[in-house]
Amino acid sequence: MIYIGGGLLAIVLISLGLSRLKPAAPTVERATVWIDTVKRGPMIRQVRGLGTLVPEEIRWIPAASEGRVEQILVLPGTEVKADTVLLELSNPELEQTALEAELQLKAAEAGYTDLKVRLRSQLLDQQALVATAEARQKEAQLRAEADRELAKDGLTSMMNLKISEAQSEEMGIRLKIEKERLEISAESFEAQLAVKQAEVDQQRALYLLKREQLRALRVTPGLNGVLQQMEVQVGQRVTPGTMLAKVAQPDKLKAELRIAETQAKDIMLGQPAMIDTRNGVIEGKVTRIDPAVQNGTVTVDAALIGPLPKGARPDLSVDGTIELENLADVVFVGRPAYGQSDSVVGLFKLEAEGDSAVRTPVKLGRSSVNTIEILDGLQPGDRVILSDMSQWDSVDRVRLN
Q1: 398 close to 35: Cβ distance less than 8 angstroms
Q2: CA–CA separation, 35 vs 56, rounded Å?
Q3: What is the DSSP string of 29-67?
Q4: SS3 149
Q5: Are 288 and 300 in contact (CB under 8 A)?
Q6: 231 with 244: CB under 8 angstroms?
Q7: Which partner from 103, 116, 179, 280 sits 20 to 30 angstroms from 264, CA to CA?
Q8: Cα separations (Å) of 169 from 127, 142, 162, 223, 333?
Q9: What is the fold, at CATH topology level, of the domain defined by 93-215?
Q10: Pairing of strands 237-238, 39-55
Q11: Whole-structure pTM over 0.90, yes or no?
Q12: How many Å separate Cα 245 from the centre of its chain?
């Protein structure tokens, strides 16, 4: 009985001890995890995004008037000059209206010339009347002076003197009236010519418009570049505003980068950027930030500084990195797979012997592309696992094999 009781007591004690033991830590292959060491020093904050090279200047060429595509002279991919004819349109109605506008302009110009001649003739007639009135006024004045001298000597009657003076006064009034008529005629002359000139200018503007529309049937790009797209086909009918072709300058490119909306909040104009074209890296500078978010990304334009590497062309896929700021002295580590800036996460910190790791709460600060700031929980020299350890969320310790 003593032996039996002792055996039962031993079993109970062993069971109680085993129940209080912690479960064994799971084993993780060291080669399958990413381990990094916490450091102190300068850290450059960056954001990265994919994008494409696009021309800085793109010109869509619209149809200036209605017409039918008669001939396409240049195919996409061809270098063109500003005056290169890309395609030709036809519009018989426009040709007819342009001819009518030209004839109406010539008729208006002829009418202006005719009116100017007639008004000039009328003005000369009025000037002749003024000259006649001046002569008669002068004659009457001389006669009155002569009669006045004769009257002093008693050689003529006072009646004749008064008649001469009255005629001289009448001729003076008539001269004044004729001069006023001349001034009015001159003002009327200018006013009538101004009205006729306005009609001529109106007809000339209409003719120039029709001539420009007629000239626009021979479509030119207006700038040097490369024809990228031809949007119409021979025989197609187009209306004003229809896009006919697309021309871009391939030697003036910029990068359009798509940055995740969570990382774009610190991007500002003028920040430096590095654009990787797979054939070389080009320095750049942020020139535009799209205020809208599309599909979770923000479009950022970066102007390219320096010569383009070989193979750089529009629509080429690139990888861009934008430098946000340079932190002089911070504690940082490689960016964990599941860590976000300004958050607290649990990272497995390796123990001194290096064969096991313990979960440690870590407060993260500002982040970069490959690194993140440590605000609390780790010290320089600590080693942590940065790989995704979500499958070990239920344990606080792992062993490294």
Answers
A1: no
A2: 44
A3: -GGGS-EEE-EEEEEEEEEEEEEEEEES-EEEEE-SS-E
A4: helix
A5: yes
A6: yes
A7: 280
A8: 21, 12, 10, 77, 115
A9: Helix Hairpins (1.10.287)
A10: unpaired
A11: no
A12: 19
Give the right CATH number for 60-91+224-248 from 2.40.50.100, 2.70.98.90, 3.10.310.10, 2.102.10.10: 2.40.50.100
Whether the Cβ atoms of residue 225 and residue 61 lie closer than 8 Å to each other: no
The first and second tokens of residue 176, run together, are 């004044």
- Mapped onto helix, strand or coil, the DSSP state of residue 344 is strand
Fold classification of 24-43+328-400 is 2.40.420
Residue with tokens 């008693």: 154
Residues of the chain with CATH 2.40.30.170: 50-55+249-326
**Contact (Cβ atoms closer than 8 angstroms) between residue 215 and residue 89:** no
Q: At what angle do helices 158-215 and 92-152 cross, to 10 degrees?
A: 170
Give me the CATH topology for the region 50-55+249-326. Answer: Elongation Factor Tu (Ef-tu); domain 3 (2.40.30)
| Size of the chain in residues | 401
Query: What residue spans in the chain does CATH classification 2.40.50.100 cover?
Result: 60-91+224-248
Numbered ranges of CATH 1.10.287.620 in the chain: 93-215
Residue 234, phi then psi, degrees to nearest 5: -60, 135
Tens digits of pLDDT across the chain (401 residues): 788 777 777 776 776 654 554 556 788 888 888 899 999 999 999 899 999 998 888 889 999 888 999 999 999 989 899 999 999 999 999 899 999 999 999 999 999 999 899 888 888 888 888 898 888 888 888 888 887 888 787 777 788 878 887 888 888 888 888 888 888 888 888 888 999 999 999 999 999 999 988 998 999 998 888 898 899 999 999 999 899 999 988 778 899 999 988 888 889 999 999 999 888 889 999 999 999 998 889 999 999 987 888 878 888 899 999 999 888 889 999 988 877 888 898 999 998 888 889 999 999 998 888 889 999 999 999 999 998 888 888 888 888 88
